[in-house]
Each structure stands twice: as C-alpha cells, then as structure tokens.
Amino acid sequence: MRIIAGIAKGVRLKGRSSKYLRPTPNVVREGLFSILGGSIEGSSFLDLYAGTGAVGLEALSRGAAAAVFVERRPELARVIRENLRAAHLEERATVICADGPRTVERLASEGQRFDFVFADPPYYTGANEVLERMQSILTEKAILIWQHSKREAAPALAHLPQTAQRAFGDTLLTFYRSPQTATPENP
To answer: Is 11 a domain residue?
Structure first.
C-alpha cells in the first residue's frame, strides 16, 4: 500500500498481518478522494476504525488540516504512528487507541467536530451504535462515509440523510451528509 496523491505521494505504508485488519484497497481510496475532490483541503478528518490509517493519511497528504485516527488495537495504533512518521504528517495528526463508540462520546464532550468522517468497521458487526452518536461530532457541512460489504445493507439514519453509494468490487461506500447541505447529486 502506498499514499496515492498529495505531498506524501508514493510513501509506502506499513501494515501488519492480522485477522482484524482489512486495509482499504488503493482503488477504493482513489475513488473516494476522486469523489471528494478539493473539498478535503483545509478540512478536519476523522478516520474511525483506522487499521493502518491509510485513508486518514491520504486525507492529510491531500491537504486536510488535521486528522484524528481511532483504532482500538494497540499494535495497529503503533502502525498508524509509524506510517505518520514515514510520511512526515505526524504534526497534523492525533492517534487514539480506544473503541469507536466511546471515542465518539469523548470527542463530542471535548467539542471536537469534523468535516469528514470515514468509518470502516469490521464487516457484519452492526456498528449502528457508533452511527447513532455521530451527529454530535459533525460540522454543519460534514460528510460521513461508511465503508461496508455490498452484501450488507447501509444503515438508515434518522438524523443524517444518505446521499449516494459507490461500489468498488465487493466494497460499498455509503455517503451521508449533514441535513443543512444534503443534495442528492453530490455526495
């Protein structure tokens, strides 16, 4: 895996062989950032269930002002820190080693808000608990991207309208937007 574009383009990312790790493939990351375009520049980005941190690193490389990486497995949190150092992006990043729902509550209580949230929970886990808490950490123009299997239905959220879905092989990206800015033609 490598960073695809931006100031850290070409930096090789470390990974760990783990049954808990399912890295977001390059084609999915490339498609995601093609969809998001220049809106990533200057934004705040949350990489939830971060794994190796590839998606958040890509966001930082493409101009996000800051990124928070949340990964509950200590060995993977170490990999994220190593990848941030290798890409020289650690100054704009925070790595939190904790579970998703608890961290979302903590971030909300600290008043942190994000323009983009990328969530890639383990497939088929029904991680709706974290989704229901998500509204409290989103800016009014935020986009939430939920990565899941095509064989798994995207959750319906009362407080966030779903605006689009994009398929990449077996992987599906479902986009949700804060109600203030939701438009069906633009994820």
So the answer is: no
Structural domain containing residue 159 = 26-177
pLDDT digits (tens, 9 = 90+) for 43-73: 999 999 999 999 999 999 999 999 999 999 9
- Strand 44-48 and strand 66-70: pairing? parallel
d(CA 36, CA 58): 12
pTM: predicted TM-score of the whole model, two decimal places: 0.90
Q: Distance (Å, rounded) from C-alpha 38 to C-alpha 4?
A: 15
Nearest 5°: CA angle at 175, between 62 and 71?
A: 65
Query: Domain containing 104 — which CATH number?
Result: 3.40.50.150
- In the chain, how many domains are there? 1
Q: Is residue 19 one of the residues assigned to a domain?
A: no
pLDDT of residue 155: 78
